């Protein structure tokens, strides 16, 4: 474990160096979050009883989404990993005394966490000071905080595990561009990034909530906002755990199959 921890630290510290990019990202997320909340406010004023979430819960959901965007954005890909497979540079990775899947998994965690650390606190503090119902509403129950942290951790691991499946699939394709575009577009909609999942039609929402993408940001943010409670909370955590282990098993299987017959530079 020491070698993976060392690799994690190196990638995490490296990610903390991009402060200018983090600052520009924060400004963008402040503006985007404000615009999104004001847009929904216009609809809520017309017919507040028509929506499945309270406006306070929606505002909290949006600000959490902006604060932790780096953790759960499926469309964030590391081009270096795709290029290493396409160019054959992955051979250098295979020479190291570590498992390729584990090393890339740790790398994905480090990069996402370093980006989130630089951006989340200013956004959370800013949104907390906004007047109700436009700001971040904090739950008063300590158990909700603990369950949210657990759910956020499971969601982050799930996203990284899903990314690993896509990275491993490059061993079987000529170019990663097609699958990247398809997966990014589909996952954004199904994860609640475009609109919260409760806003989908009932028959569509039932299907989407069972799919793995709904177990990422959708679950922890709605738990924190008080939109998931009681038995639904336990079921949501179990779904996250199930899909996490399923993705890890699929990713490891693809890695094992790919490395058995990988061809690098025609060799």
Task: Describe the structure concisely.
The chain is an all-alpha fold and 267 residues long. It has helices at 2-15, 19-46, 55-67, 69-72, 79-87, 90-94, 100-129, 142-169, 177-190, 202-210, 218-224, 231-260.
Can you offer a commentary on this structure?
Helix 1 packs across helix 7, helix 2 (19-46) packs antiparallel against helix 3 and helix 2 crosses helix 7. The chain is built from twelve helices and no strands. The chain has 267 residues and is mainly alpha-helical. The mean pLDDT is 85. Helices cover 72% and strands 0% of the residues. The two termini are 32 Å apart.
Instruction: Report on the biggest sheet.
Output: none
Radius of gyration: 20 Å
Strand segment tally = 0
Number of helices: 12
What is the share of helical residues?
Answer: over 70%
Strand content: under 5%
Run of helices and strands: HHHHHHHHHHHH
Shape: globular
Question: What is the terminal separation in angstroms?
Answer: 32 Å
Low-confidence stretches: none
**Which structural category do the helix and sheet elements fall into?**
mainly alpha
Global mean pLDDT: 85
């Amino acid at each position: 474990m020491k070698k993976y921890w060392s690799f994690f630290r190196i990638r995490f510290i490296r990610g903390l160096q991009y402060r200018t990019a983090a600052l520009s990202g924060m400004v963008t997320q402040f503006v985007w979050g404000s615009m999104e909340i004001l847009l929904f406010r216009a609809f809520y004023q017309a017919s507040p009883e028509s929506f499945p979430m309270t406006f306070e819960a929606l505002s909290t959901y949006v600000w959490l989404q902006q604060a932790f965007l780096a953790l759960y954005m499926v469309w964030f890909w590391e081009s270096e990993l795709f290029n290493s497979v396409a160019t054959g540079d992955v051979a250098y990775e295979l020479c190291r005394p570590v498992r390729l899947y584990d090393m890339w998994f740790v790398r994905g965690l480090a990069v996402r966490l370093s980006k989130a650390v630089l951006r989340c606190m200013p956004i959370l503090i800013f949104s907390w000071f906004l007047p109700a119902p436009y700001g971040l509403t904090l739950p008063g129950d300590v158990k909700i905080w603990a369950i949210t942290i657990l759910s956020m951790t499971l969601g982050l691991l799930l996203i990284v595990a899903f990314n690993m499946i896509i990275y491993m699939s490059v061993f079987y394709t000529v170019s990663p561009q097609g699958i990247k575009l398809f997966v990014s577009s589909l996952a954004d909609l199904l994860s609640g990034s475009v609109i919260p999942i409760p806003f989908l039609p009932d028959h569509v929402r039932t299907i989407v909530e069972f799919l793995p993408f709904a177990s990422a940001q959708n679950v922890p943010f709605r738990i924190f906002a008080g939109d998931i409670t009681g038995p639904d909370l336990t079921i949501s955590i179990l779904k996250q755990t199930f899909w996490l282990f399923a993705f890890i098993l699929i990713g490891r299987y693809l890695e094992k199959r790919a490395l058995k017959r990988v061809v690098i530079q025609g060799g």
